[in-house]
Amino acid sequence: MSNKAVFHFFLLIFLCACGGQVPPDATPDIITEKTLHDTDDPAIWVHPENPAQSVIFGTDKDTDGAIYAFGLDGKVIENKTLRNLKRPNNVDIEYGFAINDSVSTDIMVFTERERNQIRIFSVPDMKPLDQGGVPVFKDEKNPDYRLPMGISLYKSPIDQAVYAFVGRKSGPATGYIYQYVLESKGNGSLSARLVRKFGKFSGKKEIEAIAVDDLNGFVYYADEGVCIRKYHADPALGNEEISCFGGEYFEQDIEGIALTTWPESENYLIVSDQQRNQFNIFSARDNSFVKSINLGTVDTDGCEVTTIGLGTRFPNGLFVAMHNEREFFFYDLKMLGLP
């Protein structure tokens, strides 16, 4: 029996046991093989020549953690999986990072919480570009404020500089997010230079999910018990908060944030409403609420989306969401019913 068939079988049992509750609006096309410990956050690498060969990366959050690589069939790609990591938390992808004047590569960056650092690898060959790791929050005196969690990457349309926005497990009321510019050291490795500290924190829960709107130059992050906070991604545009929105649509925790990227139509933020086991969708144009959708996931932390068709399996794009049974669920983007 396939993973999807097993999911449908147990879903039916669950619905019967719960008195026939309304079923999900959509069910996954693919359920990945299980990780060892605790799935958290996915990232999608789109193959430039054959999108059907794209790779989904996902963190397995533990002291004996890993970044799993999955094919579009949900099977683990062992030779692209990174193991022996110390609590990898969130992960992101950026394309075309210039190593030097003649060499560029796609990169994957993730937080390694228990080592107080971020890691940088080339994709798809999975070569380390960081000489073992790049420390973050080095100036913090409180050790609890040095534990990285969320991360999102941004490439400036002005000068093609690549930035990493890094959040943490706990931190101060202001300056919670550190923004680093990633720079080539000229020897095939990269470093991260701090360019600003910004962002409010309510102090109520924590900040993990971070996402960047590359098309419009905004960074969003989830102040979990309060709202989705929005700032300019370009440090030259200042640290003033643009808005704090959406909190009233969530039961408790505001978790993973994914952004669609259609270049010539309206785009959306897809945000995990963790305790309700659903996703709330907002317009990226004005951040107004659009709708909620139940996709059958439970306790979702991270999610990610691409609007690029990935072959015959996901012709309309792909949405990936973490599920609390050590799995990631894959959906053809059409299943979300976005306008």
Reconstruct the topology from this structure.
Layout: H1 3-17, E1 30-31, E2 39-45, E3 55-60, E4 65-70, E5 82-85, E6 88-98, E7 104-112, E8 117-123, E9 134-135, E10 148-155, E11 162-168, E12 174-184, E13 190-200, E14 207-213, E15 218-223, E16 227-232, E17 243-245, E18 254-259, E19 268-273, E20 278-283, E21 289-293, E22 303-306, E23 318-323, E24 327-332
Antiparallel strand pairs: 1-24, 2-3, 3-4, 4-5, 6-7, 7-8, 8-9, 10-11, 11-12, 12-13, 14-15, 15-16, 16-17, 18-19, 19-20, 20-21, 22-23, 23-24
Q: What would a concise description of this structure say?
A:
With 339 residues, the chain is mostly beta strands. Helices cover 4% and strands 45% of the residues. It has a domain at 86-245: Neuraminidase, CATH 2.120.10.
| Strand order in the sheet with the most strands | 1-24-23-22
User: Spans with pLDDT under 50 lasting ≥5 residues?
Assistant: 15-20
Please count the beta strands (DSSP E, at least 2 residues each).
24
CATH class of the domain at 86-245: Mainly Beta
> In angstroms, what separates the terminal alpha carbons?
34 Å
What percentage of residues falls in helices of 4 or more residues?
under 10%
CATH topology of the domain at 86-245: Neuraminidase
Q: Compute the CA-based radius of gyration.
A: 19 Å
Task: Report the principal-axis shape.
Answer: globular
Strand content: 35-45%
Kindly name the structural category. mainly beta
SSE string: HEEEEEEEEEEEEEEEEEEEEEEEE
Task: Tell me the major beta sheet.
Answer: 4 strands, antiparallel
Count of alpha and pi helical runs: 1
Tell me the CATH architecture of the domain at 86-245: 6 Propeller
